[in-house]
Amino acid sequence: MSDCREGRRGILASIGNTPLVELSSLYTGKPVKYYAKLESVNPGGSIKDRTALSMIDNAIADGRITQHTTVVESSSGNLGVGLAQICAYYKLKFVCIVDPHANAHNVNIIKAYGGRIEYVSEPDIETGEFLPARIARAKLLCQKDRDYFWVNQYSNIHNPLAHRETMREIADQLDGKIDYLFCAVSTCGTVRGCAEYVRESGLDTRIVAVDVAGSRIFPGGVAKRHFPGMGAGVRSPHCDDGLIAGYVLVSEQDCIRSCHRIVAREGLLLGASSGGVAAAVEAMQEHIEEGSNCVMIFADRGERYLDTLYSEEWIMQCFGEKCGEAFPGGGPYQASAPVVTLFDWNGGVSTEHSMDH
Ligand SMILES: Cc1ncc(COP(=O)(O)O)c(C=O)c1O
User: Fold this and answer.
1) 189 ligand 1 Cβ < 6 A
2) Running DSSP on this structure, what letter comes out for residue 9?
3) What is the pLDDT of residues 58-67, one digit of tens each?
4) Residue nearest to atom 15 of ligand 1 (CA)
5) For ligand 1, is residue 17 a contact (CB within 6 Å)?
6) The CATH fold of domain 48-150
7) Residue spans per domain, the chain
8) Angstrom distance (rounded) from CA 168 to CA 178
9) What strands, in cross-sheet order, belong to the sheet with 351-354?
């Protein structure tokens, strides 16, 4: 098995080559093998370490980043942490643009790495979303000072390119037999990179994107979202429906319930998007054939969510219910069930339905 980390030094050498673990208790019934790609073990705690490294290394290689550069990015979480870590290693200045939804814990981590925080307090007037307002701030900073370099994960091709490597690792780990891949989406960099690797390598893998209800990536109503990571206020140019077999929209309550179930059954403390991915697999059970290998990308770990998704008070405050089995005494699961949309699952047959729990 080749190692993507060869030739890298220091902390950078520990990014990638993450474990793939078999989940033995999460789902029962069908003879299917379920695997989790544990991106949570990257040194910055998430899959975004790969994205950050790929975008920074390529900008250094082509001269857009020099020792005088200040790196700028709009991020409310994991990418900010990944960039702060890598900029600290390279001794580059880093400015992270955040909005009031940013997780305070993540912001403190970015500061601890030496990153500077720029707060955007008002959303974009037209859309009411913060993301366009954060992007406008990044552009403004770069216009004012030519030594600023905006990483721009939404259009930087080294975002998806990083994840060809993620998929190559999975293919190596399972000798190329991956029947299904489930992946949470935000910029769609991960899903795109994985899908391009699958296509170019001739693998027979159906890729399912997992988004949170209320996001603007796929059609569906726009609504307030609480968790960083999954979903987006704008659809990034990396998103390409032609590369995926379908998508599942999960509610935030699905993510919570599912994360708690993963802790109880597998001993893994994960972030919200991992719960969403596992809930999507659960919703897709009837479409997954016996004897298959089904891989889930678990993008980050749970410690940064202790005050939200693992806090009974917070859940009650936000949702007014305990989200099913998330806490003892949680009532029947009330949230709207995942909505599955398949483009080309059985040779061009398109289906759309909501799954009952
Ligand atoms: C926890 C988590 N899950 C999923 C994603 C989605 O990744 P992508 O931007 O590659 O679509 C992200 C991205 O920030 C994330 O932080």
Assistant:
1) yes
2) -
3) 999 999 999 9
4) 229
5) no
6) Rossmann fold (3.40.50)
7) 10-43+158-354, 48-150
8) 11
9) 20-23, 33-38, 293-298, 180-184, 206-212, 246-250, 339-342, 351-354
d(C-alpha 255, C-alpha 51), whole Å: 23
Q: Among the CATH numbers 3.40.50.1100, 3.40.50.2300, 2.60.120.280, 3.10.105.10, which is that of 10-43+158-354?
A: 3.40.50.1100
Pocket test for ligand 1, best of 39, 48, 75 (most atoms within 8 A of CB): 48
Domains 10-43+158-354 and 48-150 share a fold: yes
pLDDT in tens, 225-249: 888 888 988 899 999 999 999 999 9
Structure tokens at 172: 């190596």
Q: Order of strands across the sheet with 148-150?
A: 116-119, 93-98, 70-74, 148-150
> 54 in ligand 1 pocket by Cβ < 6 Å?
no
At 178, which helix (H) or strand (E)?
none
Spatial distance between the Cα atoms of 352 and 246, rounded to a whole number of angstroms: 10
Residue 77, ligand 1, Cβ within 6 A: yes
C-beta 79 within 6 A of ligand 1: yes
Q: Quote the ligand 1 centre to 329 CA distance (angstroms).
A: 32
The model carries a pTM of: 0.92
Cβ–ligand 1 contact at 266 (below 6 Å): no
